[in-house]
Amino acid sequence: MIKIAPSILSADFAKLGAEIEDIKQGGADYVHFDVMDGEFVPNISIGIPVLKSVRKSTDMFLDVHLMIDRPVRYAETFCKAGADLVMFHVESDTAEKINEAIDIVKSCGKKVGLSVKPKTPAEALYPFLDKLDMLLVMTVEPGFGGQSFMHDQLPKIEQLRKEIYSKGLDCDIEVDGGVDPVTAKLVKQAGANVLVAGSAVFGKADRSAQIEAIRNA
Ligand code: DX5
Ligand code: ZN
After folding, report:
1. Which bound ligand lies closest to the C-alpha atom of 198?
2. CATH code of the domain in which 144 resides
3. In the predicted model, what is the mean pLDDT of residues 114-140?
4. What is this structure's pTM?
5. Is the CB of 178 inside a 6 Å radius of any atom of ligand 1?
6. 176 among known catalytic residues
7. pLDDT score of 27
8. 10 CB less than 6 Å from ligand 1?
9. For the chain, which terminal residue's Cβ has fewer other Cβ atoms within 10 angstroms, N or C?
């Protein structure tokens, strides 16, 4: 089943509660919450206090995407602030520390995910696969909304879907970056089942129509 996760990075933060209610009414499955530290990526976005406020204002599933260095430092804090799933990057620390961060999230009773940047091969995720609820393939360089979809990432999605299937694992594949009603079709064909969309949803007045167009692409 396809799930749609609008990224609030493209929402109007001055009226965030209403923006989230709008996508909920529009049929979104998850809220995608992008955290950037100005180190792992060249941008700074939102963090723990905003997540706490969002948690109080909605019962939607909060899919928290940490684009930060050494996420092990904050894994428990983001769980306690209200994340339903905490996702971080395989490039953000050593394998030992990534494993530690995964274990912290699981011990908090939350779902855990691991992401790869466009230049990182699919194989980088293999050692962690059996512990993960979700993988995230970035189809833009992380850091900014509104970039163009990178078609050269489609084989990576196919490769990861095959690997998950051959190991008999129950792991979602999320795609993030440049997803719109046109590129959604391609990522679904490649094997993704959770689609993040920022500007394609929040950049249009009718969020419901956009969410349905992406879901039915
Ligand atoms: C980019 C973020 C994305 C971003 C996607 O670093 O991780 O979630 O908001 O925005 P669009 O859908 O506009 O590419
Ligand atoms: Zn994201």
Report:
1. 1
2. 3.20.20.70
3. 98
4. 0.98
5. yes
6. yes
7. 98
8. yes
9. N
68-96: pLDDT as tens digits: 999 999 999 999 999 999 999 999 999 99
Nearest one of 92, 140, 89 to 115, comparing CA atoms: 89
The predicted model gives 172-179 an average pLDDT of 98
CA separation for the pair 66, 105 (Å, rounded): 13
Domain that holds residue 110: 3-215
Q: How far apart are the C-alpha atoms of 206 and 165, rounded to whole Å?
A: 36
Q: How many domains does the chain have?
A: 1
Pocket of ligand 1 contains residue 142 by CB under 6 Å: yes
Identify the residue whose C-alpha is closest to ligand 1 atom 6: 142
Looking at the CA of residue 177, tell me the nearest atom of ligand 1: 14
Other beta carbons less than 10 A from residue 177's beta carbon: 26
Q: Is 43 in the pocket of ligand 1 (CB under 6 A)?
A: no
Which atom of ligand 1 is nearest to 147's Cα?
14
Rounded CA gap, 46 and 35, in Å? Answer: 5
From the CB of 146, is ligand 1 less than 6 Å away? yes
34 is catalytic: yes
Which residue has a Cα nearest atom 10 of ligand 1? 145
